[in-house]
Amino acid sequence: MIQIQTFTFNPLQENTYILYDETRACVIIDPGCYEKQEKQALEEFIQTNKLTVSKLLNTHGHIDHVLGNAFVKQKFGVELYIHPLDEATLRAVETYAPNWGFMQYEPAQPDHYLNEGDTVTFGNTTLEVLFVPGHAPGHIAFYNSAQQLCISGDVLFRGSIGRTDLPGGNFNTLIESIQTKLFPLGDEVVVYPGHGGTTTIGYEKKYNSFLT
Predict the structure, then answer these.
(1) pTM for the full model?
(2) What CATH number is given for 3-207 in this structure?
(3) How far is CA 116 from the centre of its chain?
(4) Residues of the chain under the 70 pLDDT cut
(5) Which keywords describe this protein according to UniProt (predicted)?
């Protein structure tokens, strides 16, 4: 059974997720840890719970979701997975990070690519990769059907959606991604977004003004 630990890191209040199961294998999704104490919090949780990091996953390559990529790769000796269409988004972070105040940002390059329909496995757990562009050109989400949960990144939030005014963003594409990839998962699916609290597909269908 998947257990999920959420950390909220950096000034942009980004959600970093650790998913682990009874085997103590885990994946880290979108490490936004930048300050020393944030990195320590991530490391201490993994050590305290005797977890073994299997993979590093990025839903997309925007700065707030990747600040800790290099730290995670180096500390835990794991490889980075991202959609190929978002590699350019990731590589661009090094150029603009100082303008956002992240003077000590350390870039990390992807080792593997994930595409629609691929699966990610760790321990006894399988995550399905969903291609959900619109916020970023190569944005992906991770879905587990057994527990009806979805790590959505910056696609769908409680009562809102991801911004589309950044390079590679497109409002119509984002809405299509939500309606054709996330909504069909079912009303009971719990969504763990890149910012803010959890929600469900059913709640967003009924109350999200962007989608009703």
Answers:
(1) 0.97
(2) 3.60.15.10
(3) 15
(4) none
(5) Hydrolase, Metal-binding, Zinc
